[in-house]
Amino acid sequence: MATRSLEPIFIEIPDNISVEAVPDNFVSYVLKHQEALPPVTWKNWYSELDWQHVFVLFVPLTFGLIGAWHTPLRLKTGILLLVYTRLTGFGITAGYHRLWAHRTYKATRTLEYILAVLGAGTLQGPITWWARGHRAHHRYTDTDLDPYDARKGLFYSHMGWLIFRPRRKPGPADISDLRSNPVVKWQHKYYLLIAFITIIAVPTCVAGYGWKDWQGGFVWTGLIRLVIVQHSTFCVNSLAHWLGDQPYDDKHTPKDSTLTALITLGEGYHNFHHQFPMDYRNGYKWYQYDPTKWFLWSCEKVGLATHLNTFSENEIKKGELTVQLRRLLQKQEVLTWPAEKSDLPVITWEDYQCQAKSRALICIGGYVHDVSDFFDKHPGGAYLLEKHNGKDATSAFFGGIYDHGSAAHNLLAMKRVGILLGGAPHGSEEQFVPPSQHLRVSRYDELSL
């Protein structure tokens, strides 16, 4: 009887992969068993184009620019352009992203239909396709299974992943909840019709019937707006992984940037978002620019949204502290520190006094210090060092003559050459540990388990 292999079989259709078939080392397993297409080069780029996405990205851009050249932007049309850009942008940020991709809140059927219609007005695909790719992006960030892997460059993560056929299938992501959602299924069924109405019919008719600017409505609020919203969204995949800082995690590429937030309707606090994707906020601090956060808060107040998820403030602060400590450790590792106690010789008081006859030694806080090279540098004058040579200057150092500051404590610790047998019974932690080491970050191998 043949034994069944325990190694999971790779499933070609990632969306249909079963839980049992997912190995713990899934990314490396897929990279090993799934053959990728040859890389795109200057010789084969034309044959590797995804013409559907090329059409979606470049036809509206081309006709929009040509039309804009011949169509003056009227004030009312310009206002409509700004308002409609914001509304359809919410279809992506509040709908596709925070509602359907991450389930950060619950929406009423009314709000779901509104966001589904507005999202179709950006021509970024049905909800299922968009959310499936975005969930894969979060699960496989900065790996070859990430659909818009930022490691492959700014252009690739912005739009190259759309223009060219993917070199391999993106990692699997569960979207069963979306496939059973009636609003999502409705949008998927009528996607092209909804997209035509929201992209062409609505802006053209509003401007045309409203103030007789049919051409301006079609060109500016239809085509130009579409291009603006598309590239605003693409900046979340590209610019938000390239520009800014990383206050919550520096393991992956996502970054926080106010500039990116301004461009993307608040989606620019991407480092926070990747660490706490279930939070309905992207800029979680009250003053951070995140209009989608304010929009959802308003929807909750009028009863259109409920269960707005927020992550624990304690865990958010802990994430910040983790990064700060890691960076402090990096700074700490390049500094020179005092000799460890175990590396210093233990000497008696008599031996200390004997050695002090041939070199400048001063005892402070139970440690013996060689101050031979500090006579000409001591701010208080060389005579004070000469006065305490071979003596205990603890009281003098800690306020008897002058209450030295942190810099003096740290410098003194670097001059330790021995430990006095018996130490200083009256000594305190302040006398034994220099200020620079009070909060010194410990490496894992320094911790006792």
From TrEMBL:
GO cellular component assignments: endoplasmic reticulum membrane
| Predominant location category | membrane
Top-level taxon in the UniProt lineage: Eukaryota
Q: What Gene Ontology molecular-function terms does this entry list?
A: iron ion binding; stearoyl-CoA 9-desaturase activity
Q: Where is the Cytochrome b5 heme-binding domain?
A: 326-421
Instruction: Look up and give the membrane topology term.
Output: Multi-pass membrane protein
PROSITE patterns from the UniProt entry:
CYTOCHROME_B5_2, FATTY_ACID_DESATUR_1
Which Pfam families does UniProt cross-reference here? Answer: Cyt-b5 (PF00173), FA_desaturase (PF00487)
Q: Which SMART domains match?
A: Cyt-b5 (SM01117)
Q: Kindly provide the name given to this protein in its UniProt entry.
A: Acyl-CoA desaturase
Protein species of origin? Boletus reticuloceps
